[in-house]
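User: Quick sanity check before I run a bigger batch. Here is a single chain. Can you write out its predicted 3D structure?
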Amino acid sequence: MVRNAFASLRGRSAASIGVLVIAGILIATLLAMVIPLRDGRDNLASHYDRSSWSNDYLVESLPEAAAAVTKLEGELRSVDGVREVVPQYFLDATVNGEVASLRSYDSALDLDLVEGRLPRPGTCEAVVSRDIESSTGVGVGDRATVRIEQYDMAERAESVVVEVVGVVDRSHPLVPGSVVTTCDLVPLAASPVALLVSTDGSVNLPQNLSATDLNSVAEREIRSGTSSGILGLIVLLLVLLSFVVLASVGRWAVRSRVSEFAALRTWGYGRRAILGQVSLEVVLLWLIAAPVGSLVGWFLGWQFMRRVGDVADPASGWWVATPSWTSLVLVSGGVLLALVPLTVLPAVAALRPSVAVMLRRRGE
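Assistant: Done. Predicted structure follows.
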């Protein structure tokens, strides 16, 4: 039967190539949409799951009074296993009229640079995330004025001038949309909004603190920062469109074979044998379309994540779009499960009449 299936595919090369191309395009298109929707976030979460971050904690929900924050810093420094406690300032700001977040730099952030270098302590240097560079036009070597949004009547500085020395990967989850600086931010804020606590891994911070390790903070930002609503709707529409396309392909493929079916029935082939051969032909075509379509879909998904939206940085490697086995099975397997019945059902209808009727229609 396999030999007959190959012979039939070769004899109908134009139709076979047509089905092969359409199936490959559907697999590639669906996978290119599923990768940013599902696998891209998982790949980023895995990439930013860093062992050093499991020992560093961000203590949030600090008391408003500066004296209480200072007291808490002293208590944390006295805990065995705590190496360093660094106040963190997150300020709402604008750069060239674009909204940004001004925050303190610390080496524990482990920033991924795509250009330039890290800021040096004791200076007023800064690195900006890729999205800030794109929206404001501020890049390495520029001096930028960061204006602070004032929400109270306190007398504080309204801006700070920083020298940009680096650009951070857009997908870095700890500094999205940020200007990260070594400038002294104390004159710009009433008190820090968080404390970055570095430990040796053996310490248990007090339970009453709102302390989250940086790995958990990173994963939270990745999961919340990547919108899936629109992409999910697009995938749903593509799935529905795929069923329509596959149904049309199945009818077209069978309609051109009515004469062949009549000849096979005349030579003694039963309906089940013919339907089995049709199903086998579809599977053989799918075995070629699935790997080719998956590779093309991987490439398209990578390009989509790099060039559209804010999922990944333009400099991100292919790893960010690596599809999971689950996605590959769901997409390519789903196309197969749809293509076989949508091809076999028209063949069943074509084989339902008697041999005499099929021959008479063949003559017509």
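Residues 43 and 320 are 6 Å apart (CA to CA).

User: Great, the batch can go ahead then.
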